Amino acid sequence: MVTGNKKFHIVFQNKEKKHISIEYHLHNTELADTWFHKIKHLKNIPIDRVESNLVDLSNLSKIYKDFCEFADLEPLDISSINQKTFNILHKIYEENHDNLSMKENNEILYRFHHSIHYHEEQELRKTKIYIGWGTKEGPLTSKYKCNRYYEKKLMSNHLYLPWSELGKTPLQYWKNGEPNNQNRINQLCKPHLTFRAKFFMAKQNIEPKDHPEGFKNWFEEYKENWLQHHGIDKWDEIDEQCAPLLAVPTQKFNADDLEFLSIRI
Predict the structure, then answer these.
(1) Cβ contact 67:108 at 8 Å
(2) What mean pLDDT value characterizes the chain?
(3) Could you tell me if 181 and 187 are in contact, meaning their C-beta atoms sit under 8 angstroms apart?
(4) Which of 131, 133, 163 is nearest to 258 (CA)?
(5) How far is the C-alpha of 198 from the C-alpha of 23, rounded, in Å?
(6) Contact 170, 60 (CB under 8 A)
(7) From the CB of residue 110, how many other CB atoms can be counted at a distance below 10 Å?
(8) pTM above 0.85, yes or no
């Protein structure tokens, strides 16, 4: 369903290198309009290939070694790669992010972060195409309470604003076996408060699944304090698994094996 008057095109490329241009209509919300103005500044700038999952992130051991060399750190033994290892590596990334993000030629910092999540969240790559400009966004990143704009489900081919925090959602935190500590939960668990000039396209319809009982029982102890800490009213399956709608296509298409090329505004 067309929801706004502003139009733009996304150009994809299939495996045969054929270009496919899809017209989109901007969704009629303040959030979508704000996103549209951000993207106008980036439309002629090449996307960040790490941010857009277009580089090889599979060799975490090698990427971690390169990160340690860049950060001047002594590498830990990660011969056994499991969720505990991912948690340790993510904490190393957090602790070094602010300092290393100020250094030149720091692509390995973001490759390291994306490689951790590549191994943690492999299913996401099958259902979504992510597009971002990385550090080229510059001052376009802003603070914004995005959760109130979340849709109740994701629709195939539609464009959405991704959760983009330096941390984890509550369900990710619980699944990853992070510490049962309110201060750490408040620090690492984040609602959608960072509004970045990026987006994803859903490759299929996605309806939120009920949270596991184990998670709901665990989160009950920390939830009220966490909500107050971040200044939000609720956190449920929609907040965890859905996203704010940005734009609706004027036609349906098969998004399998498509690669983003450009956005034309």
Answers:
(1) yes
(2) 92
(3) no
(4) 131
(5) 18
(6) no
(7) 21
(8) yes
Nearest CA-CA partner of 196 in 31, 9, 69, 55: 31
CA distance 20 to 75: 44
Residues ≥6 apart with Cβ < 8 Å to 141: 194, 195, 196, 197
Beta bridge partners of 154: 206
% of the chain surpassing 70 pLDDT: 97
Tokens 């030149």: give the residue: 104
What's the pLDDT tens digit per position in 179-205? 999 999 999 999 999 999 999 999 999
CA-based torsion, 127, 81, 97, 148: positive or negative: positive
List, as one string, the DSSP characters of the chain: ----S-EEEEEEE-TT--EEEEEEEE-SSHHHHHHHHHHHTTTTSPPPTTTTT-S----HHHHHHHHHHHHT-PPP--SS-SHHHHHHHHHHHHHHHHHHTTSSS-HHHHHHHHHHHHHH-TTHHHHEEEE--GGGGGGG-EE---GGGB-SSB-TT-EEPPP--SSB-HHHHHHTT----HHHHHHHB--S-EE-S-EEEESS-B-PPPPPHHHHHHHHHHHHHHHHHHT-S---HHHHH--BEEEEESS----TT-EEEEEE-
167, 178 in Cβ contact below 8 A? no
pLDDT of the residue at 109: 94
Q: What is the CA radius of gyration of the chain?
A: 19
Amino acid at 61: S
